Amino acid sequence: MRGTQGKPYVSPHWVTDAWSAFTDDRVVRVAVDAVGGDNAPDEVVKGALAAAGPQLNVVLVGDEPRVRALLPPGAAHLSVVHAPDVIGPGEEPATAARTKTGSGIVVGLRMVQEGAADAFVSAGNTGAVVAASVLYVRRIPGVKRPAICTIMPAMPAPVAFLDVGANAECRPEFLRQFAIMGQAFAREVMGIPEPTIGLLSIGEEPSKGTPEVVEAHRLIADDERIAHFRGNVEGRDIMNRLVDVVVADGFTGNVCLKTIEGSARAILGALRATVMLNAKTKLGGLLIRKDLQVLKDALNPEEFGGALLVGMNAPVVIAHGNSRARGIAQAIRMGRRGAVSGLLPTIARELGARPEAV
What we know:
Isopropylmalate Dehydrogenase, 2 domains, 14 helices, about 45% helix
């Protein structure tokens, strides 16, 4: 496998830079759950204002009087749709998706279903977003399970990682489909021409892992649609970016994602504390201040916005629950990128080309 030792860091704004290379004049309408997330609606509205533009119209879905009070006079490319209800973080997802039809999540996803919006973004209850997406937007024909695909901060460039929470348990056939969808995501959304794929396990050998992972390894290796499968990767390999796409079940992926995020915050906090120890370390910190900022930005999940629920008939973006304005803006931009890219037709073509095992 290829490593990254000795390679320089990329721009901390890699996603914005990469997406700007894919110019498209299409006007995309993104519905945004204005009341979902720890910092809603204030930070959501700020993020929407930052992202909105001539090719990106934003529809804020939530308590209309509350949302409008946060908008400046004459805000362009923004509109508001009233949704009086909120699905809380502790509510049972499937039940809430069916019963709270006046929530920002359900109203926004029904807008996508009815063609009033091209994509949807929420930092609210992840389970409810997944359940309501399956109920209203529905899966691409041939997709057995959707997967949450995130762009994981890594060096020298980010890596696609799925599933990070939609499916706690996965059959081997699901993991094979995740590999196909992750390959399409890396190519069409991240702009990686020939992405390499790795299956997360407890050892590099094909025989390592649970029976499901061992069988998934065989299925992925034998599938000619997956062009560059590099075999199993371990947790320590993700941040070293041995592959472009990492595939896992949703339970393992979510634990891994949050462990890496927590570790990155702890390391940056320890580095900050070390810099502030005394006059000598403070002077050294000033000398490398710009370099430290590059590192901080490169490891900041806010730079990558949200995770795309791949396998759906339209782009559904799940933003981090504690997203602030920068993260929301990037999630909205990801929604547009998902709509104008070839991701959906590529997945439909790859997974609709043959009958899949149930």
